[in-house]
Design a protein that fits this description.
By secondary structure, the chain is α+β, with helices and mostly antiparallel strands. The protein folds into two domains: 153 residues, Nuclear Transport Factor 2, Chain: A (Roll); 97 residues, Sandwich (Immunoglobulin-like). The chain contains six helices and 15 strands. A five-stranded mixed sheet has the order 8-15-14-10-12, with no helix packed on it. A four-stranded antiparallel sheet has the order 1-2-3-4. It has a four-stranded antiparallel sheet with strand order 7-9-13-11, with no helix packed on it. Helix 1 packs parallel to helix 5. The radius of gyration is 24 Å and the shape is elongated.
Amino acid sequence: MRLVVLACLLAGSVFGQGFAGLFEKAPPQVDNDLRERIQFFFQCHKDKKFRQADQVVHEESKDQFFAADKLTFREFELVSITYEENFTLARAVVKIDAEIVAPGFGVMKTVRPIASFWKLDGGKWWWYIPKTETSMSPWGSRRAGPEVTEGEKPATAAALFEKNQMTPEKLRASVQVDRTEVLLQSHEPSEAAVTFTNRFAGDVHLKIQADDLPDLTVRAEKDVIKPGESAKVFFISKATGNAKRPDGRALITVEEIAKTVQVQINFAYPPGSK
């Protein structure tokens, strides 16, 4: 199972499970010990030293850990820890900066949260896979898929991608733009904007490449658009005079889903110039 399965199928699992003790604060030593183990575990994955990561894997989950494809990423950040069972069980949410392989796209950059589960045993914290009614992957839970009959091959990442209807077209459509053309004035300062709305499972970043037009600035309202949020890209002109300004274009790329939007930049003729 490739990382794309985690990216497309498991994004909702990170925040979907309620834990008791959400607002209880762990004893400092307990919390520090767990944070050290989490840091070690994910640093080993970042460095691709998976055998070292096994040092903090609980005995009951070692077979699943070794059988699973290993998670790889460039950076990681511990976001939160939630405790239960009198601080003997915990769930950690870690944000990773990774690359996923998606059919039709190849390698894409993505930033997303994932869950890991920990238990206190023998005075030490261990990474483990909890036994639940849902099917557990090493990086979260998901509903079990259809059973595989004898002689049938297990679903590939690409098949799971298509089964869940996350085609390349639908992936690109997960970030929407309200317009692809703006109109600015040639004879006086003016401003226009296009709005990007993120319905993707994770954060997205906008990369802007605009023609070098005199007195024109193109900038995004914010660097990161979180799921369910919108952001504007502003086109700000300080043009003055009686001559029509040259038109141009801007290419705005949503890096995580490899979507590029071309925005046509038009300048109106000054009054009485035609």
